[in-house]
């Protein structure tokens, strides 16, 4: 999933920046496989929910982040993560460099994903395809970096961007001139999502299935490589 970002008139990226969308695919096609499973889709953010079933959080049914709650419950039976389980239409999604490049249609990434789906190597390749050097050269110290605005008495808003680690969303409610509710879904929250009420694991847990553990290993090297390929930030996820 990519919420789209970096809208530029010109420069090193495409004319419209990274586009928003959802890519659904099995990857690694075999002859005679169902190619219809690999499709680009429009992104409907109204279908985003947060499941708390396996999180050390109080809550019932999955809620949209605009009305979500964050109430810790460290003794919750069956929980094993401080991370919520965000989902899109009830399904976990991977975000990050490879998702962004795949949805934007980068030919190298599309070819790599078609051959081997998302893996450590392909995530690293996708992360190298960035325009950071040009952006640094474009910095102008002393120029304004934000636009001040007046807080309304009543309102709701959502802020979306593609952070380096993936899709980031902020949902805000204002009542009587004060912040009533503020919920964030960070990129690592998407990728490190624990299991939801249906027992569906998030992208990292799925990626770890079958990871080899060599005889005598106290800390599995393969597990470390897979985990770090998601470029996690657990601090952002937990707070």
TrEMBL record:
Per UniProt, Mg(2+) binds at 184, 239
Q: Which SUPFAM superfamilies match?
A: HydB/Nqo4-like
**Residues binding Fe cation:** 236
The entry lists its GO molecular-function terms as:
nickel cation binding
Q: Which UniProt keywords apply?
A: Iron, Magnesium, Metal-binding, Nickel
Q: Which cofactors go with this protein?
A: Fe cation; Ni(2+)
Question: Binding of Ni(2+): at which residues?
Answer: 233
Entry-linked InterPro entries: Ni-dep_hyd_lsu, NiFe-Hase_large, NiFe/NiFeSe_hydrgnase_LSU
Query: Is Repeat there in the keyword field?
Result: no
Q: Does the keyword ATP-binding apply?
A: no
- For this entry, the protein name equals HupV protein
> Which species is listed as the source?
Lamprobacter modestohalophilus
Upper taxonomic lineage: Bacteria, Pseudomonadati, Pseudomonadota, Gammaproteobacteria, Chromatiales
């Amino acid at each position: 999933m990519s919420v789209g970002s970096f809208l530029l008139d010109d420069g090193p990226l495409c004319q419209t920046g990274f586009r928003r969308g959802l890519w659904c695919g099995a990857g690694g096609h075999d002859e005679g496989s169902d190619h219809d499973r690999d499709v680009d889709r429009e992104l409907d953010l109204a279908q985003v929910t947060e499941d708390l079933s396996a999180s050390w959080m109080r809550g019932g049914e999955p809620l949209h982040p605009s009305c979500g709650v964050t109430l810790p419950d460290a003794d919750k039976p069956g929980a094993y993560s401080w991370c919520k389980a965000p989902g899109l239409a009830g399904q976990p999604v991977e975000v990050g460099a490879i998702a962004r490049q795949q949805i934007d249609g980068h030919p190298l990434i599309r070819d790599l994903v078609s051959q081997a789906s998302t893996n450590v190597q392909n995530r690293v390749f996708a992360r190298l395809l960035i325009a950071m050097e040009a952006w640094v050269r474009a910095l102008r110290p002393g120029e304004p970096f934000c636009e001040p605005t007046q807080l309304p008495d009543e309102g709701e808003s959502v802020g979306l961007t593609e952070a380096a680690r993936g899709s980031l969303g902020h949902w805000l409610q204002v009542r009587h001139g004060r912040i009533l509710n503020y919920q964030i879904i960070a990129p690592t929250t998407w990728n490190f999502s624990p299991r939801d009420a249906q027992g569906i694991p998030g992208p990292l847990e799925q990626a770890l299935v079958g990871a080899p553990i060599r005889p005598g290993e106290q800390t599995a090297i393969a597990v470390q490589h897979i985990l770090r390929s998601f470029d996690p930030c657990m601090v952002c996820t937990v707070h």
